[in-house]
Write a structure and sequence with these properties.
CATH superfamily of the largest domain: NAD(P)-binding Rossmann-like Domain
CATH topology of the largest domain: Rossmann fold
CATH architecture of the largest domain: 3-Layer(aba) Sandwich
Strand content: 5-15%
Largest sheet: 8 strands, mixed
Structural class: alpha/beta
Bound molecules: acetoacetyl-coenzyme A
Number of helices: 12
Distance between the termini: 46 Å
Helix content: 40-55%
Order of helices and strands: EHEHHEHEHEHEEHEHHHHH
Length: about 280
């Protein structure tokens, strides 16, 4: 089955990026968020991204306008999902919130619709268990910033069908991404490797080994990473980083995944990174 109609649920930084690349791949996109102002902000941001790309010669004005015209705000989950071939949820990284949403989507979507989660670490098999279509539930994990990063980590739950995998992988390729197949283990591959590194960088700061700038400088200049782990944590969101470390810790029961207390206290303080104006760095 080829995907033409995509619903994106959640208009934060990930949902916005996914809506943009889906529209640029030629799909009709419906964007829904429980907070409607987030959809307006997201559409304005996509508009800016698309016109920025025209100015840089990445695509033509006409292509930008066509992509923009394919994205529409939806007023309800029902409106977003009822005739979608694929629904991608990109809401908060919380098992209960995602299960509640997936159960609702299962009831509004048609029988053929594929339900994908952009979860960065939660078990896809467990998410699928609240639906009546576990063969059509899959993880479609985009990287931030979505329009730039070339990977989609595609996670197969235990019951995900070959057809669902092939359909989603084909769409990822149409979006200009490389789809890599991964089994359903805590943190998958990306965050099982990335997040302990970020957590260790936070411990290094917590223990006073070096300043945030020096820690990031070591990793940028010494390891050729495009940005240091603390700056990257700020980009991802410290609440998301903490949620992923907790999933690894719970999922493996191994103390090597314990979240750094400093990460936890920053999240409690509301210092969530770029999106809140302050994390390990200040963005005000
Ligand atoms: N949205 C769209 N495009 C963006 C962007 C954004 N938020 N931020 C940067 N870009 C684009 C810029 O427009 C620019 O495009 P051109 O080359 O066409 O002009 C390009 O990216 C480079 O940007 P800059 O020159 O401003 O800055 P940079 O060279 O430092 O690159 C970066 C910025 C792409 C973010 C780079 O630092 C990078 O690759 N960082 C690492 C990002 C990363 O590791 N992401 C994965 C995070 S993990 C994750 O997402 C999964 C998870 O579950 C936690």
């Amino acid at each position: 089955m080829g995907i033409n109609k995509v619903a994106v649920i959640g208009a934060g930084q990930m949902g916005s990026g996914i809506a943009q690349v889906a529209a640029q791949a030629g799909c009709e996109v419906r964007l829904y968020d429980a907070e409607s102002e987030r959809v307006s902000r997201s559409l304005a941001g996509i508009e800016k991204q698309l016109s920025g790309g025209v100015a840089k010669g990445k695509w033509t004005q006409e292509q930008a306008e066509q992509a923009r015209s394919r994205i529409r705000a939806a007023g309800s989950l029902q409106e977003a999902g009822e005739d979608a071939d694929l629904i991608i949820e990109a809401i908060i990284e919380n098992m209960n919130a995602k299960k509640t949403l997936l159960a609702e989507l299962d009831s509004v979507a048609s029988a053929q619709t594929i339900l994908a989660s952009n979860t960065s670490s939660l078990p896809v098999t467990e998410l699928a268990s609240v639906t009546g279509r576990p063969e059509q539930v899959i993880g479609m994990h985009f990287m931030n910033p979505v329009p730039v990063m070339k990977l989609v980590e595609v996670i197969r739950g235990l019951r995900t069908s070959d057809e669902t995998y092939a359909t989603v992988a084909e769409l990822a390729e149409r979006m200009g991404k490389t789809a890599l197949e991964v089994r359903d283990f805590p943190g998958f591959v990306s965050n099982r490797i990335l997040m302990p590194m970020i957590n260790e960088a936070v411990y290094t700061l917590y223990e006073g080994v070096a300043s945030a700038e020096a820690i990031d400088g070591v990793m940028r200049l010494g390891m050729n990473h495009p940005m240091g782990p603390l700056a990257l944590a700020d980009l991802i969101g410290l609440d998301t980083c903490l949620a992923i470390m907790e999933t690894l810790h719970d999922g493996f029961g191994d103390s090597k995944y314990r979240p750094c207390p400093l990460l936890r206290s920053y999240v409690h303080a509301g210092w969530l990174g770029r999106k809140s104006g302050r994390g390990f760095y200040s963005y005000e």
